[in-house]
Amino acid sequence: MNSKTVYIHTLGCQMNVYDSDRICIRLLGMGYDRVSSAEAADLVIINTCAIRAKAEQKLYSLVGRLADLKKKKPALRIGIGGCVAQQEGEKLLNRAPCIDFVFGTHAIGRLNDLITQVERSGRRTVDVKLADCPDDDFSYAMNPSISRQISRFVTIMTGCDNYCTYCVVPYVRGAEVSRPPEHILDEIHMLADSGVREITLLGQNVNSYGQKEGWCNFPELLKQISGIENISRIRFTTSHPKDLSEELIQAFSTLKKVGHHIHLPVQSGSDRILKRMNRRYTHSDYLAKIDRLREICPDMAVTTDFIVGFPGEDEADFQDTLNLIQAVQFDSVFAFKYSDRPSAPASRFSNKVDEDVKSDRLGRLLELQKKCTLRRHQSLIGTRQVILVEGRSPRAAESNQAIVQWTGRTSGNHIVHFSLHNRNGSPEPDLTGQMLSVQISRSFPHSLWGDVIADETDKVYFSSKQS
Ligand code: 5AD
Ligand code: SF4
Prior knowledge:
- By secondary structure, the chain is α/β, with parallel strands linked by helices.
- The chain has 3 domains: 4-127, Methylthiotransferase, N-terminal domain (Rossmann fold), CATH 3.40.50; 139-379, tm_1862 like domain (pyruvate-formate lyase- activating enzyme); 384-466, CATH 2.40.50.
- Helices cover 36% and strands 21% of the residues.
- The protein has 14 helices and 19 strands.
- The chain has helices at residues 14-29, 53-72, 82-88, 90-95, 111-121, 169-172, 181-193, 218-226, 246-254, 271-276, 283-296, 315-328, 355-379, 454-466; strands at residues 4-10, 32-34, 43-48, 77-81, 101-103, 125-127, 151-155, 157-158, 177-178, 198-202, 233-237, 261-263, 301-308, 332-337, 384-392, 405-409, 415-419, 435-443, 448-452.
- It has a 6-stranded parallel beta sheet, sandwiched between helices. The chain has a 5-stranded mixed beta barrel with strand order 15-16-17-19-18. Strands 7-10-11 form a 3-stranded parallel beta sheet.
- Helix 12 runs parallel beside helix 13.
- The chain binds 5'-deoxyadenosine and iron/sulfur cluster (SF4).
- 5'-deoxyadenosine is lined by residues 51-52, 166-167, 265, 267, 305, 307, 336, 338-339, 341.
- Residues 51-52, 166-167, 265, 267, 305, 307, 336, 338-339, 341 line the site of 5'-deoxyadenosine (5AD).
């Protein structure tokens, strides 16, 4: 076969992973085959992230390597998409002569025309128009070339209207726009039909889903998705603490498919810094939301994001952050050193914090959190959890017996490894996609070990023999 090949390299967040699938489906439609290295490709696309300077630097080092490759392979085409493409536009072409085209976060729907034009004319092109609503092509769910997975992302809204002072998202992803509920439901139906069992709904602030458009609100959307047969679990990210409503908190208990995990980025424990960040809640507002979540769902897992070294953050502010970690006892956290983003207002704030102070605070924060995570994991020992099995664990079985090790996740999103013992030589059933009960027997820094509860195993074994 004489088809063209594309390599897509994804940097950044889950929304970029989803967008790369949308890019891929368009290229498959144009006759491209997807390959797993730039060396094997006729076209390379980098889907970029602008959230911190480090992510942006990754792009430039990749482009440097592609420039060398293009010297050996002059027919190679290179396209840059995503948030850095949106932010830099034409400047990327000036900076790197090897780049053939640049397409922004709202240009995926116009990508076919853009590539066709570049292929025909050989002219370098830029499309970073932000005016469009995001397009709604969900046909990829039916495409066999997109690998079959148990868990998939579905973007329900794009952009952000919150304008936190450190954040580049409103400038590179545009204003908040929600997708119509019927499009989202159609997409999830298709995914469920193709074998997907868990859906993670994506948006910068899912709590404000549908508000501007006057469509159903987020808890109502969750209820409708819960009605889709074959979807066993629903997750979502990200929730803004200021918009976490009582109705959504209640949904964790009334909608049985919604996982008992919330990612609720707090960013800082200092009221002074939260104000400078334009977050519009206080340390005590945040603690009150956590108390309410745990009142409704005592087993709720809570994760968060922190930025350390925001302009003006002093040691007392940082202590407020450590105090908040102690008070909440998060299951895990993502923590970042503040990074200046030229389009975000905080880049013009005074009292910048030295890099070595940021590094010191990041280290202390992570050290404290390590202990909290271990404690949280230990507290799960002896509990019974229902896990969704994701597949065979890449890790080798513990003993030298030929035991298959499996991996799944609890409702709270904790990773559980397990194996089926004493099968007396009977073949191992494929458990992927099954809901299985386990009793947690051991805890590790990043995962748990579970013993499968016998009667459930027999049921699974029986059902897999039937199929
Ligand atoms: N510097 C450091 N971290 C940032 N984040 C967003 N913008 C910045 C920045 N300028 C972090 C926040 C956010 C996460 C996705 O990235 O913690 O929740
Ligand atoms: Fe950025 Fe704030 Fe919007 Fe999150 S809510 S995407 S941090 S502006």
